[in-house]
Amino acid sequence: MTRVKHCGVTSLDDAVAAAEAGAWAVGLNFWPRSVRRCDPDVAAGVGAALRRRVELAGVFVNQPLDEIAALAEAVPLSMVQLHGDEGTAFCAEVARRTGARVIKAARVGSRADLQALQAFRGVDFHLVDARVPGMRGGTGRTVDWDLVASRRSPVPLILSGGLTPDNVGEAIERVRPYAVDVASGTESAPGVKDHALLRAFSEAVAAVEVTA
């Protein structure tokens, strides 16, 4: 069954709604420049409420290791998503310091982008998002599914980028990812989840499994 990661969660209410909609993981963004930045105190409340129900993924972009480790302990995070220019050695050190599983994210707009991600063989997951100049994610743009489907790697894939309840079924059928990641596609405003869309997204994912 394809898993669902609801990212860009900024409140406990939305986190609980995501969990109730069947989320595998809830993504909490700690990049200061993100419109979906989650306050660390809110994140700790999410962790206290949901740590045994869902994976808690912290999203970071080129942030210091000490900062990542501190937040991983405080929340606590079960996964760390690195969405910047972090190298393989940094990813390994994050795993060692935090004990969390590591997601290495990449913005993919060409075959070269996809091949560069292959160097990260030691992480737990690869996440692909659309490449949009000047943006790190949450763009609402879809990645080239046919390009991503050509990927050959034993590292489990999380597919992100412009997914909605209307298109996630087709995306799964074409890419066959381990999990799908959604932020803007289930929002009423940046960082604010529409609970009906959370449920609709999970239902759309489940429907693919029934007919696969």
* Rg over CA atoms: 16 Å
Quote the beta fraction: 15-25%
Please give the count of helices. 8
The N- and C-terminal alpha carbons lie at a distance of: 10 Å
Task: Tell me roughly what share of residues is in helical segments.
Answer: 25-40%
Mean pLDDT: 94
**Which ranges are low-confidence, i.e. pLDDT below 50, for 5 or more consecutive residues?**
none
Major β-sheet profile: 8 strands, parallel, barrel
Strand order of the largest sheet: 1-2-3-4-5-6-7-8
List the helices and strands in order: EHEHEHEHEHEHEHEEEH
Quaternary organisation: single chain
Describe the structure.
There is one protein chain. The chain has helices spanning 12-20, 40-50, 65-74, 88-98, 111-117, 145-149, 168-175, 195-211; strands at residues 3-6, 25-29, 55-60, 79-82, 101-108, 125-130, 157-159, 179-182, 187-189, 192-193. The chain has 212 residues and is an alpha/beta fold. The model has no long low-confidence stretch (mean pLDDT 94).
Question: What is the element layout, followed by pairings?
Answer:
Blueprint: E1 3-6, H1 12-20, E2 25-29, H2 40-50, E3 55-60, H3 65-74, E4 79-82, H4 88-98, E5 101-108, H5 111-117, E6 125-130, H6 145-149, E7 157-159, H7 168-175, E8 179-182, E9 187-189, E10 192-193, H8 195-211
Parallel strand pairs: 1-2, 1-8, 2-3, 3-4, 4-5, 5-6, 6-7, 7-8
Antiparallel strand pairs: 9-10
Helix pairs in contact: 1-2, 3-4, 7-8
